[in-house]
From TrEMBL:
Residues 101-163, 349-414 form the Nitrite/Sulfite reductase ferredoxin-like domain. Its cofactor is [4Fe-4S] cluster. Its EC number is 1.8.7.1. This is assimilatory sulfite reductase (ferredoxin).
Length: 554
């Protein structure tokens, strides 16, 4: 549960002091690499692989790639090998990585703050068509991912992306990943503060810098000054959340140590108010603590949330002030309840300058290169040069004049991008799943899209905000623990005792002031075939039994 008072919440379960000594923390002298990942990072910085890709691997081909580059350092440039087609989910845990992987890559394009120009979106669409078989997925961290990329084409892809100011630098790997930001920063009429200058400054100073290119594991950042709290700040390693300080005015409340995956944990407030100009330094201090004190011995304990669980917010703040910032932070208030139950900005909204932004919903983030080019052209034809991705796998076109709104809406809907979607289209997300992901056990994207269609047909009058998130494995790429209905992919038994694709059900997760993780419904697993029936039953029961004003999560 997130703290609501002005001071940090008391620590929940802190482990005994002394446990840290053998955790592989650099700050206490543990520089000897304790696992294979730490060893390859010590042998050569992940960022250095770019030169080898450009000068060697792109010419000599997939088979020539050093395994430590292939399955390690190439992530620092947004490249993962994708799953070989036709391998079923039952083999995921038993095959070696080289047996699961294809000679093609997923390439993640970093979109900090979700901000794209028309030229940038068009370039991604063209790269997708030319080098990625037309694939493109909007992720729930505002990135865009392409598949079927050949190593031979990577230098040309980088040239094209970089010519419009995009990059894949540190899009994956043990480093600061994309900084998610409010997709309506700077334009929303109800904004507390615009965090985008801080995002740009962090990018300029620290992304691609060797100061933070060897962290214990990935590091996730969220910055938003929107009262909607539209960046899932509760589950990021560090988050800056817009608040109005009674004496100092608008600034940011600092949260640390959130994360999902197999040990989910909500971030905690440090009780500190940070002015916009000081966000980059405060960010660098938190990342510095993670680099120096983070646990490197075991990969599954290497995220910042484990250090935070042991230290608690008081100690974390003290180390940040004393050792990194060399000054005291200002005490500050907690953010209020999010101002809207939908946090995605779908629909037509007036900007503070009198123009409009238009949020629209693809199905489960799946688009394609040709369509992205059409969206870019549509935005330009209606007078916009700015589009944003959202953390709900959706998109927004900004700066639309009033008379252009309805023609733009019609153009989007002609591409099957709904501006006034059903709650099912709006609230359903899916991770990559078995189509491309080497860790997957089940299919997700196609099933999520089919579930939307089926629920729209069966429940046309359902109007409640609802989130339905599908994961292809026990990881948490689609945030199942924070969904109203979270579906964790696994193999299950059908009525006849056959092993088939299905899902473990989690119910009642939420973010915001009532944040909490969905409860795993004991023994409740549904086969993929039963999924629409099951979800319809749950939603019908909710409609019939809820009290006035009751949310699904309560
Ligand atoms: Fe892959 Fe699992 Fe993440 Fe889905 S949740 S993208 S299957 S690792």
């Amino acid at each position: 549960m997130a703290a609501t008072s002005d001071r940090p919440s008391p620590a929940t379960t802190r482990r005994k002091a002394g446990r840290h000594r053998g955790e592989g923390q650099w700050a206490v002298g543990h520089f000897t690499p304790l696992n294979g990942n730490e060893q390859f990072k010590k042998d050569d910085d992940g960022l250095n692989v770019r030169t080898r890709i450009e000068t060697v691997y792109a010419k000599t081909g997939f088979a020539s790639i050093d395994p430590n580059d292939l399955r390690g350092r190439m992530r620092w440039w947004g490249l993962y090998t994708q799953r070989k087609p036709g391998i079923d989910g039952g083999k995921t845990a038993v095959l070696e990585p080289e047996e699961l992987e294809d000679e093609y890559f997923m390439l993640r394009v970093r979109v900090d703050g979700g901000r794209l120009s028309v030229a940038q979106l068009r370039a991604i669409g063209e790269v997708s068509q030319e080098y990625a078989r037309g694939t493109a997925d909007i992720t729930d961290r505002q990135n865009i991912q392409l598949h079927w990329v050949r190593i031979e084409d990577v230098p040309a892809i980088w040239r094209k992306l970089e010519s419009v100011g995009l990059s894949t630098t540190e899009a994956c790997g043990d480093c600061p990943r994309v900084i998610i930001g409010s997709p309506v920063a700077g334009i929303a009429a109800d904004e507390i503060i615009d965090g985008s200058p801080a995002i740009a400054e962090i990018e300029r100073r620290f992304i691609g810098s060797k100061e933070f290119s060897n962290l214990p594991r990935k590091f996730k950042t969220a910055i938003s000054g929107s009262p909607v709290q539209d960046v899932v700040h509760e589950i990021n390693d560090v988050a800056f959340v817009g608040v109005e300080h009674p004496e100092h005015g608008p600034g940011f409340d600092l949260w640390v140590g959130g994360g999902l995956s197999t040990n989910p944990r909500l971030g905690e407030r440090l009780g500190a108010w940070v002015p916009l100009a000081e966000v980059p330094d405060a960010w660098a201090g938190v990342v510095g603590i993670f680099r120096d004190y983070g646990y490197r011995r075991l990969r599954n304990r290497a995220r910042l949330k484990f250090l935070m669980a042991d230290w608690g917010p008081e100690k974390f703040r003290q180390v940040l002030e004393d050792e990194y910032l060399k000054r005291k932070l200002i005490d500050g208030p907690a953010p209020a309840e999010p101002s809207s139950r939908w946090r995605d900005h779908i629909g037509v909204h007036r900007q503070k300058d009198g123009r409009f932004y238009v949020g629209f919903a693809p199905r489960v983030g799946r688009v394609d290169g040709a369509t992205l080019v059409k969206v870019a052209e549509l935005a330009a034809a209606h007078g916009s040069d700015r589009l944003n991705t959202t953390v709900e796998q959706k998109m927004i076109i900004l700066d639309v004049a009033e008379e252009q709104v309805e023609p733009l809406v019609a153009g989007l809907e002609a591409l099957d991008f709904q501006v006034r979607p059903s709650p099912f289209r709006r609230g359903t997300m899916a991770c990559t799943g078995i189509e491309f992901c080497k860790l997957a056990i089940v299919e997700t994207k196609g099933r999520g899209a089919a579930l939307i269609d089926e629920l729209e047909r069966r429940m046309p009058d359902f109007e409640e905000p609802i989130t339905i998130n599908l994961n292809g494995c026990p990881n948490a790429c689609a945030r199942i623990q924070t969904a109203d209905i979270g579906l964790k992919g696994q193999l299950v038994l059908d009525e006849d005792g056959n092993q088939v694709e299905g899902y473990q059900v989690h119910l009642g997760g939420a973010l915001g002031l009532q944040a909490g993780f969905g409860r795993k419904v004991r023994g409740l697993k549904v086969t993929a075939a039963e999924l629409p029936d099951y979800v319809e039953r749950v939603l019908t029961n909710f409609q019939e039994q809820r009290e006035v004003g009751e949310r699904f999560a309560t």
